[in-house]
Amino acid sequence: METVDLDRLDEVVRRAMDEPPLSAEEQIERRMDYVLREMDEFMAMAANPETVDLIDHNRVLMGQIMTRAQLIGAFLMARNTKPGLRVVQNNG
Question: What is the pLDDT of residues 15-25, one digit of tens each?
Fold first, then answer.
């Protein structure tokens, strides 16, 4: 399977159409939107009895996607933690 560099492809298309380059914010939004649309396709396939086996056969890859999404969330949550504050649980 051939890997496509979507950023490079987007740059070539924009240059051919004489469109201004995207800002960093626009680039990340476009990339995240692409990932979300792909995830929507995977969800639809997993919910469809005719295609669920395609997703099931790639269970390890789906686990890697889940782990990476959790790590991204953890990185973002860590940014919002104020120094000196900690969560204390009372088990008594």
Answer: 777 777 789 89
Local structure of 29: helix, strand or coil: helix
87 backbone dihedrals φ, ψ, rounded to 5°:
-90, 130
Whether this model's pTM surpasses 0.90? no
Distance CA 36, CA 20 (A): 25
Taking the C-alpha atoms of residue 30 and residue 7, their distance in angstroms, rounded to an integer, is 10
Question: Under a CB-based contact definition with an 8 Å cutoff, are residues 62 and 55 in contact?
Answer: yes
Sign of the alpha-carbon torsion through 45, 50, 54, 55 = positive
